[in-house]
Each structure stands twice: as C-alpha cells, then as structure tokens.
Amino acid sequence: MALLIDKPLWQFRGEKWSHLVSDESYDELHDFAKKLGIPRRAFQGDHYDIPERLRDRAIELGAVPTESRELVKRLRKAGLRKKYKN
C-alpha cells in the first residue's frame, strides 16, 4: 500500500497543484499530510491538494509519483474514492 502523488497540473491561485492520496486508509493520508504541514481542514473528501512547492518534500517522505489515471484507479480499487454527485 502506498501514498501516491500525481504531477502538479492543476492551476489555482497562481500555483500548480498535485493530488495526494492513500490507497490504504484515510488515517495514513491524514498522518502524512500532517508531516507536510497540511492542515486537516484541507482534506478534499478523498485527497489533499498539494502545492507544487511541497511535491518534492512529499516524495522525500515516501509518496510515490504516479500518473493521475493510475492514482484514481488505485483509489477506486481500495474503496477510498469519494463518489461525487453530478
């Protein structure tokens, strides 16, 4: 099981952002985000948005760089993907 981070492709407020997820548990994800200094209130239902400037640090701490499609696939397989209403 792993913490996964995709490439920073999403622009918001002048920065690029990555998604950080766990394919094991939300507890693992929350603990890891705390190590990065990301507050729990930043949790987005099944992931954290991570600014590009913190991506290398996340990888140093053990997050695995992963393509976005693979990240979502693994999140779904683990049963941790939030279902959004249309």
Question: Can you walk me through this structure?
Answer:
The protein has one domain (3-77). The model has no long low-confidence stretch (mean pLDDT 93). A hairpin with a 2-residue loop joins strand 2 and strand 3 (15-22). It contains 3 helices and 5 strands, in the order E-E-E-H-E-H-E-H. Strands 1, 2, 3, 4 and 5 form a 5-stranded mixed sheet that branches. With 86 residues, it is an alpha+beta fold.
Outline:
The protein is an alpha+beta fold and 86 residues long. 34% of the residues lie in helices and 23% in strands.
User: What is the CA-CA span between the terminal residues?
Assistant: 30 Å
SSE sequence, one letter per element: EEEHEHEH
Mean model confidence by pLDDT: 93
Tell me the Rg in angstroms. Answer: 12 Å
Total number of β-strand segments?
5
Largest sheet: 5 strands, mixed
Number of helices: 3
The percent range for helix content is 25-40%
* Assembly status: single chain
Silhouette: globular
Broad structural category: alpha+beta
Number of domains: 1
Q: pLDDT below 50 for ≥5 consecutive residues: which ranges?
A: none
Question: What is the percentage of strand-forming residues?
Answer: 15-25%
Which key terms come to mind for this protein?
single chain; 3 helices; alpha+beta; 86 residues
Topology:
Layout: E1 3-5, E2 10-12, E3 15-22, H1 26-35, E4 48-51, H2 52-60, E5 64-65, H3 68-77
